[in-house]
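Q: How do we represent a protein-ligand complex in a form that can be generated token by token?
A: Start from the inputs.
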Amino acid sequence: MMLIDLHTHSAFSPDAEDGVQAMIDEALDRGVQVLAITDHCDCNFWETAPSDTVRDHEMYGARFYAKASISRVDDLKKIYRGRINLLCGTELGQPLQNTAAAEKIVSDKRLDFTIGSHHMNRGRDDFYWLEYEKMDSSEMVSLLDDYFEEVLEMCRWDRFDVLGHLTYPLRYITERGRISDVDMKRYDELIRQIFWTLIHNGKGIEINTSGLRQPIGKTLPDLEYVKLYYDMGGRILTVGSDAHKKGDICAGIAEGIAIAKQAGFTHLTYFEKHSPNYIQI
Ligand SMILES: [Zn+2]
Ligand SMILES: [Zn+2]
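Then emit the structure tokens for the protein with zinc ion bound:
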């Protein structure tokens, strides 16, 4: 089986552990053929933190660590050439919350691959931080309405290669015991619009396998949505572990590939300088 992991974080991401070289060496040990390092660039945290009391303080200053990651990975590509196909990526968070910053990063010529992600709605904390226990059902509905609408808006902006971890909030809603309050049928039309927009623009989605290591126990998105995307004509699909430490490189990738096949896919995609390459699965 082809080993590929297109969503990983090195210590250039404030919430990750291992240096880029340690990540690559681990991937080599595991026989990974294609590895993308996709450190965070949460665009709303582009500048340094305005005060010491703001939440997510550590994620501020993306303008420094996101560029540093790209430089380091680009340098290491030469060193590892012929041993592993190393791709220089970034996980662009909330690009529409600071479009000028997003444009600066995505226009970096060294990038092979950009994941477009949505970790927090406008004016809200990261879904990780929200207090679901205190929300009534109407707050929960409006939170998810905003999430899917803001994701759709990001897809229309179109300056990335694949949409990251669609259904991200469900990871935390499940963990905090509120998933039974969510009626996903409500979002069918918005999710169709998201897929239609991506397909129309020649962009793709990822199967993010991090959920398999968490209480949700499913990929983000899960088989139902991967199949819908395929049935609507989507053919650009990547798989990524979302590893934040070297021990998680390729975690769940075999299951992710099995889901891709179940949904109808015969190929996965990886990007070099934003051009898609297809590999048979
Ligand atoms: Zn993410
Ligand atoms: Zn990530």
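The longest helix spans residues 137-157. Residues 91, 117, 119, 164-165 surround zinc ion (ligand 1) (CB under 6 Å).
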